[in-house]
Amino acid sequence: MIDIDQKRQKSLAYVSVLSKAERANALRRIRENVDVVDVVRISLTNRVVSYRFALEHLVIMTPMAQAVEAERLLNQLQNRIARYNTLPPTWRREPSLASAN
Q: Rounded distance, CA 79 to CA 91, Å?
């Protein structure tokens, strides 16, 4: 979405006949997409917080060896989310955390 919106924004300057409504519609789409990306980023961050809370409380109730691996995967997920918040998108599918051993 971000890549397409950047192209959309740049192309507005080159359209010879562009009504105010068309321009407003294009800008609205760009804002909408930015909002969607922000909601996803916030949701992912909240999900990590929830998973960490659940893991911490599970370990208190029932200590288990898998907790270390679960925490490692949570840290990987948190680092990946942080990277997405700071870097432009790569638009390529990445391996799942479960298969990244």
A: 18
Q: How confident is the model at residue 57 (pLDDT cuts 50, 70, 90)?
A: confident
Which DSSP string corresponds to 7-27? HHHHHGGG-SS--HHHHHHHH
Region of 98 please: left (phi>0), alpha (psi -120 to 50) or beta.
alpha
Residue 48 CA to residue 55 CA, distance in Å, equals 10
Q: At what angle do helices 20-61 and 66-86 cross, to 10 degrees?
A: 160
Rounded to whole angstroms, the Cα distance separating 60 from 63 reads: 6
Give the DSSP letter string of 73-93: HHHHHHHHHHHHHHS----SP
Q: Are 26 and 8 in contact (CB under 8 A)?
A: yes
Query: Which pTM value belongs to this model?
Result: 0.63
pLDDT digits (tens, 9 = 90+) for 88-97: 655 566 666 6
